[in-house]
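Protocol step 4 of 6: record predicted structures for both targets in the notebook before any analysis. Target 1:
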Amino acid sequence: MVNIEAWVWWLMAAVALGIPLVLTAMPEFGMMAAGAGAAAIGAGLGLGPVGQVLLFIAVSVALIAVVRPIAARHSVGRPQLATGTEALKGRQATVLERVDAEGGRIKLAGEVWSARALDTDSVYEPGHQVDVVEIDGATAIVM
């Protein structure tokens, strides 16, 4: 049987832990792979088997305890970029032709849109500023 040094085993463990990291995108595997890399360095510097295992555990747990909460904080609450018709909701527009429940025309984001009033009793005359509540197909619903 071939006598392989301990640091090589730790490097193989680091690579083995890196495979599920790539396949599952779970960063914990990467942190444990870093712990195995630290244990490989310890083995290369002459650290005993118990020290290698303790170094692996210490580095892995420290990375998981410190890096994981930071990463979780940064992944939550990212502002969503509104595009398309979602970006038009909440914007103001100028009435070009009378807008009521039946329809009308507005100027929204530099373009002329067909529009209708959200409230069936509301009527908006030309020049009036309205808020876009929703986009229904090619028609802006305003109030």
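Target 2:
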Amino acid sequence: MPSMVVIATTAVPDHLRGALSRWTSEVVPGIFVGSVSARVRDELWNTVTEVVGNGAAVLIHPAPTEQGYAIRTAGTRRRVPVDFDGLTLICMTAAPKVKQTQYPS
């Protein structure tokens, strides 16, 4: 039975956006919404995880949880979903540190 899915993408290749738009509608740049079966959802997500590269993607879909949905993420990101006693919370990771170059005085 089809259910609603939301896929949010950031800095992904154009061909991935094209693949997602075959099954969903891009309501604003990078946000795809659709009603697809679990099989199609999983195949779409496999495609996303294979080609996301240095970009980032988030999939939100209905699930039998307290919140009523599940979150999957792929790619480079600072926000990571963490299970906390059955609730999915978002953990912010530190920004990557930039090496500082020492110049002789």
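Step 5 preliminary note on target 2. The chain is about 20% helix and 40% strand. The mean pLDDT is 90.
Proceed to step 6 after PI sign-off.
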